[in-house]
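Morning!

This is the sequence you dropped in the shared folder:
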Amino acid sequence: MCAEPWTAEDIPDQTGRTAIVTGANSGLGFETARHLALRGAHVVLAVRNEAKGREAADRIGEERQGASLEIRRLDLADLDSVNDFAARFRADDAEVDVLVNNAGVMAPPRTLSPQGHEMQFASNHLGHFALTGLLLDRIGNGRDPRVVTVSSLAHYGGRIHFDDLTGERDYSGMGFYRQSKFANLLFGLELDRRLRASRSPVRSLVSHPGLAATSLVENGFTTLTRPIGRLVLRLFTQSSESGALTSLYAATDPRAESGQYIGPDGRREWKGPPRVVRPDAPAEDRETAARLWALSEELTGVRYEFAAVQTDVGRGPDDPDQTD
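The structure's back. Tokens below.
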């Protein structure tokens, strides 16, 4: 990392790069898409609600006339939607240089996805796992290709409920949110290991925004706790724009390395400019990551084809053994 605090002004010129940002119509996703577009990237706003996506694109367009933006519908909770998004993207022979797995839901009442998976696990993890796998060969052909998966401080204390994935026996909204954010870290770090082993040029990084005042966080409060929650947000959080800097660093800075976890530099990683941080130790457990990977392939039907992106470009001879 650089000696001076990293800001949006440090984002390199993105002209010629294509970025897909999930959940790009609001919050962290909007700010990520906005800054990438302002720096010249062609940005695909992958959103569940196309009308809100158009509103977001209009806001960015007002700030930068001629911004290169595209709205595509994607419901990450529905694997049929994920498959359709990827198929249409491939049918258009489109390439992608960076995929930002940002979208998510937080602490809803117990709900199942169309395929019968717990909603947070489906939206926050399985949908992104499937999307990344379906587009990996396209990403591998990109310029400085990267996958950035957005986790959360909530991954601390998280675990994968292998024996009760849907929460049928014991569901807690926040407990299963922690599971999904824990899964994001396991996935992003395991993806890095497998990419290195295949000598792929793709970098896999994980980021978290600290405590960012987004609608996702505010909606996580109950009616009774919302007034107190809003006070806490004002006192201890940073803006969505500041929170998005960790993802933007991971997606654009030349010094960002595959396998890194990027979070805020401040006390307890609540706020501040981006820096490399360490996840909770269980998130680095390779056995758990491999078990989750196999389960995710089974549940999504997506098998990763790393041979499709094998290359000798951009990796030193010792790099496949690196894990940090």
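Headline: Residues 308-324 have pLDDT under 50 and may be disordered.

More detail when I'm at my desk.
O.
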